[in-house]
Amino acid sequence: MNMEQTGSFMPGVAKSGAPGNDDGNYIAVLGGIETCGWYVDAPYPALLEAASGTRCLNLAKPHAGPDAFLGDEAVLAACQNARLTVIAVSGAHVVQNRFYAMHSRRNDRIVRQTDFLRAVYPEVDFSRHHFVRHMLGELYDRSPARFALIRDELQRNWIQRMNLLCARTGGEVVLVWVGDRSPDDPAETVEDGDPPLVTRAMLRALRGRIRATVEVLDISGSEAEALEGKIYGEGQEHAALRVPGPRAHRELGDRLAAAVKPILAELAPSVSRPVARRA
Predict the structure, then answer these.
(1) How distant, in Å, are the alpha carbons of 83, 170, 182, 195, 226 from that of 246?
(2) Separation between Cα atoms, residue 180 and residue 157, nearest integer Å
(3) Strand 84-88 relative to strand 26-30: parallel, antiparallel, unpaired?
(4) CA distance 18 to 277
(5) Buried/exposed code over 15-33 (b: 16+ C-beta within 10 A; e: otherwise)
(6) CB count in 10 Å sphere of residue 81
(7) Within a 13 Å sphere around the CA of 79, how many CA atoms are in the beta-carbon half?
(8) Per-domain residue ranges of the chain
(9) 151-154 own/partner pairs: CB under 8 Å, 24+ apart
(10) Which pLDDT tens digit goes with each residue over 128-166?
(11) Superfamily assignment of 26-100+153-266 in CATH?
């Protein structure tokens, strides 16, 4: 795991060191670009740290689903040593499945489509598709009925992988839902909004020591409103439109602090313990 995330003109990306001598007195935070805090000055993990008085170790990875963290033993060790772990809900389109293989760290990128997917959509030229979201959007447009086969598997796998991730953190978990749709809204296609393809029923199917779920909607009435307060360079407007803005981060920081303070009050600082191995 690269504990220090860097990138060209990405204000707010976490620059987090190893836990060091904290003796487990920190909160681990897992998530994707919404947690990295791209294009904002203060991402919600930093605001949570300020509001809670407890250090937050931001372990976010751009475009990461649960498998990106399950494959990183250093991240799991940091979570197991933490007092609690905050996990931002990812879309179901970035979990392992039988239809396409993704980049191990950037789960939005396709490594290859499987023969199974080609059999379901024999008319599609998959050589044009390098990104998961774009491909799934076209597949739905071509055949909602056939796309349902993909969606159903992605949703089942998402529940399984999220349950495993929650278990392997080894402690208390708080979930974060941030996006432009509620988990009660339709989730038939990736175009229905973020996080894609995840529903309220899927959240309720999660097990383990999930102490709270904090939900914040980031909905803007115009592009100008969506870009308000964001920091971006030339040609980055489209990318900046797709991530939460400062207002959503502030609300997340405040609401997370209210959720975690009573939990932290119950818990003594953690002690180091080995990462649970896969069965």
Answers:
(1) 27, 31, 19, 18, 10
(2) 23
(3) parallel
(4) 21
(5) ebeebeebebbbbbbbbbb
(6) 23
(7) 28
(8) 26-100+153-266
(9) 151/92, 151/188, 151/189, 151/197, 153/97, 153/98, 153/99, 154/92, 154/93, 154/95, 154/97, 154/197
(10) 999 999 999 999 999 999 999 999 999 999 999 999 999
(11) SGNH hydrolase (3.40.50.1110)
pTM (two decimals): 0.88
Phi/psi-derived region of residue 233, left when phi > 0, alpha when psi is between -120 and 50, beta in every other case: beta
Q: How far is CA 82 from CA 131, 159, 190, 248, in A?
A: 34, 23, 33, 25
Band of pLDDT at residue 274, cut at 50, 70 and 90: very low
Distance between CA 153 and CA 181 in Å, rounded? 21
Residue 84: predicted pLDDT: 97
For residues 176 and 26, give the distance between their C-alpha atoms in angstroms, rounded to a whole number: 17
**Cα–Cα distance, 273 to 268 (Å, whole number):** 14
Which residue bears the tokens 């931001």? 58
Structure token digits, residue 188:
């038939």
